[in-house]
Specification:
Layout lengths: L1 H22 L5 H4 L7 H4 L5 E2 L5 E2 L8 H13 L2 E2 L1 H8 L3 H13 L18 H8 L5 H6 L19 H10 L9 E2 L2 H7 L4 H12 L18
Antiparallel strand pairs: 1-2, 3-4
């Protein structure tokens, strides 16, 4: 009996493993290029501003890592990131759609050899240095990289060069709790954001946005010419 149970257990594990492997989804950039209709109205216009929860430029996503884009869209779809418009859009996307869009935007506008240097191009002011130093665990640079452009994990975004007002809104959202339509659920980021006042977050956002990065907005007219 024990031998039979062991065999059955082994077969069950094998089936789960095969099933998981079968469900692994690979993004296709060419397919993603045909699925951008709901993206270009905001992310395909340079300087386009959103009004929720306050006026700010929509984030640059071309050149962001595919893994992060998948993570972000999945969180909007699941409600971990609360944003009515993004939730509505994400709800219409299948896992394959998300993977394809992520693959497409991750290589959009990226040119070989065009990445910025691995060291920051400008030194932070004394005030910003003191804010960064407040993080005793160095979580900001450990996760996002010393230049805020080399994340240590695929689900962590590149931040260097991102719009300052978007970074400000995004970081503040991690401080929000118990609101139906606003806030982001992430224990690490929530803990980090709560260390700073909103004016201090604005200082950090301004500095990070001044750094050289790979993120950009590719105009809709060039959207299907990734190089």
């Amino acid at each position: 009996m024990n031998k039979l149970l062991t065999t059955m257990f082994a077969l069950a594990v094998a089936c789960v493993t095969v099933s998981a492997q079968a469900q692994k989804i690979t993004g296709n950039a060419e397919a993603g290029a045909k699925k951008t209709a709901m993206c270009v109205g905001c992310h395909g216009i340079i300087g386009y501003q959103a009004s929720f929860p306050e006026i700010h430029k929509v984030p640059m996503i071309a050149g962001q890592s595919a893994t992060y884009i998948v993570s972000a869209l999945t969180q909007y779809k699941g409600g971990e990131r609360k944003h009515p418009t993004m939730r509505a859009i994400a709800d219409t996307l299948s896992e394959q759609d998300i993977a394809d869009l992520a693959a497409y935007y991750s290589q959009l506008g990226v040119k070989e050899g065009g990445a910025p240097p691995l060291t920051v191009a400008s030194h932070p002011s004394e005030k910003v240095q003191s804010l960064i130093a407040r993080d005793k665990d160095n979580a900001c640079t450990k996760c996002h990289g010393a230049n805020f452009n080399t994340p240590n994990d695929g689900t962590v975004p590149k931040l260097a060069g991102q719009h300052a007002d978007y970074l400000y809104v995004a970081l503040k959202s991690y401080k929000v709790q118990n609101q139906h339509q606003l806030g982001r659920s992430n224990a690490v980021m929530s803990g980090q954001a709560k260390k700073y006042t909103n004016p201090e977050i604005k200082e950090l956002a301004s500095y990070i946005s001044s750094l050289p990065g790979e993120l950009k907005t590719v105009p809709e007219s060039l959207l299907h010419d990734p190089k």
